[in-house]
Amino acid sequence: MTAAQFPAKIPGETDLLAGLGVVGGVGYAPAQWVRPRPALPTQGAEVAEDGRQGEKDRFAAAAAVVGSRLSGRAGMVTGHASEVLAATAALATDKGWQRTVNKLIDQGAPADWAAVQATDTFVAKFEKIGGLMAERTTDLKDVRDRVIAELRGEPEPGVPDPDSPVVLLADDLAPADTAGLRPEVIAGLVTQLGGKTSHTAIIARQLGIPCIVAVGARLAEIADGTPLLVDGDTGDIVPHPDVQDAVRRVQEAAAKAERIRAWQGPARTADGHRVQLLANVQDGAAARKAAAPGIAEGVGLFRTELAFLTAQVEPSLEEQIQVYSEVFEAFRGKKVVVRTLDAGSDKPLAFANMPPEENPSLGVRGMRIALDKPEILTRQLDAIAAAANDADVDAWVMAPMVSTVGEAEWFAGLCRDRGLYPGIMVEVPAIALVADQVLEHVEFFSIGTNDLTQYTMAADRMSPYLATLTDPWQPGVLKLVQLTAEAGQRHGKSVGVCGEAAADPQLACVLIGLGVTSLSAAAPALPAVGAQLSAVTMDQCRRAAEAAVSAKGSVQGREAVAAILAG
């Protein structure tokens, strides 16, 4: 499916120009499209043998320039933006990609055509793997285009550098584009493609830029210079708005942003109901930032797999203890929820020797690796227990991709043998349906709404074409959350949410109304959630939950909830 074929809306949902709001806030400014990508070359004339080394030298020089530029930008920003730019810069000088290009040049292809062919080869591999690897195709195509422009002596493609505020429009944006955005001149960001977990959404959230994705082909109707009002909370896009109304909405959004900056935890509703806000982290540096006073009360999701993914051999017990200890030290004496190895699918393990799969999202991933190679899991649990004991943390440990009661019972036994508090992630719909039986064996649930939504809606959460389906506001997804939370209440056990849904302030109110006891998100998202909760009562949260679950679709659910929470 091409961008032109992308459905502008789900039938019956809305006739407005709208997309999926992924970063809240309101922007008002003229529209400006990103600079076009270079026209890709065709095969062209074969390069004579005595000229092939020169073509390889030209390619190497262009790739080095592109990599250097991206690395320089990575050093000028921080956080996820810096990580993404550094990773994209590494693609420009990736040895596998460069070897493929040079091999094609040796066969007579010009440098620019060789870059296209090599990129197509890797894109096909990434798309077959799916998930996060499929998302990397945008990054690789971006590097290809920059290298081709450099080979031709053309201007670097991508985001313009305006002198005054604009609403930036694009089919899609590569991480290298998004990470370099200046919030002082980018009033909003709107793309045809994309999803809640795309790099564009994550970096826009870090920068505080209102962002709407998955608008579809209708976005192309908007010309450069068109006055645009964009609302990242609702996903609405209004061309030629009433000026006074637009200014008012921008001012209201600015006042709301100021209230969010002023918020200090712990979180509670207006009538005093306490809600535990926790942070998602992947390493010690992220944990130390999240531990700043007034933000997170602990860690709701420690992604331990990041310590494994770059390893060619399994990290030793001592190496794992060191990684876990850095996070535990930041939250000494507090709650830290550790997710065991969530690898496979889009996050393959070099040392697990998993065979290629036709449908990796439904294949051997998460807990399923441990069923075949239990020693990987038991060594990890040993390391977690040792690190938690040294740091005196309240260590809760959960397994991802659990699908049966028997798996949950087996995992809980391994944890209890080591003095760890056992739980599981609710990502597979079957677990929500047998939640009471599972809770006889584990002490807590953590709902991973990203995967739960993908499996409930039968839609790849990384597909830009299915973003309206992979929306956690979908009533079917929320019904499964409700079943899970109600089971937790019957058993007197904690049910948290650690997916992207927890970072949505209004959806957070719905989740609390459904009976969820804790919310875990990236630390920068927590103040907005806390501020929203402080403005509503538990009665409003329960009524909002009922409205969202019984809504016809995600759009109607959002509208009904917004009205209830504003009342």
Summarize the structure.
With 567 residues, this protein is α/β, with parallel strands linked by helices. It has helices spanning 52-74, 79-92, 95-106, 111-129, 131-152, 175-179, 199-207, 243-262, 284-290, 317-330, 367-372, 374-391, 405-417, 429-433, 435-438, 449-456, 475-491, 505-514, 526-534, 538-550, 554-566, and strands at 20-23, 26-33, 166-170, 186-191, 211-213, 227-231, 236-239, 267-268, 274-281, 299-303, 335-339, 394-399, 421-426, 444-447, 494-497, 518-521. Helix 1 packs across helix 5 (131-152) and helix 18 packs across helix 20 (538-550).
Task: Give a description of the structure.
This protein has 567 residues and is an alpha/beta fold. It contains 21 helices and 16 strands. It has helices at 52-74, 79-92, 95-106, 111-129, 131-152, 175-179, 199-207, 243-262, 284-290, 317-330, 367-372, 374-391, 405-417, 429-433, 435-438, 449-456, 475-491, 505-514, 526-534, 538-550, 554-566; strands spanning 20-23, 26-33, 166-170, 186-191, 211-213, 227-231, 236-239, 267-268, 274-281, 299-303, 335-339, 394-399, 421-426, 444-447, 494-497, 518-521. The strands form 2 sheets. An 8-stranded parallel barrel has the order 9-10-11-12-13-14-15-16, surrounded by 5 helices. Strands 1-5-4-3-2-6-7 form a 7-stranded mixed beta sheet. Helix 1 runs antiparallel to helix 2 (79-92), helix 1 crosses helix 5 and helix 10 (317-330) crosses helix 12 (374-391). It is globular, with a radius of gyration of 24 Å. The model is unreliable at 1-15 (pLDDT under 50).
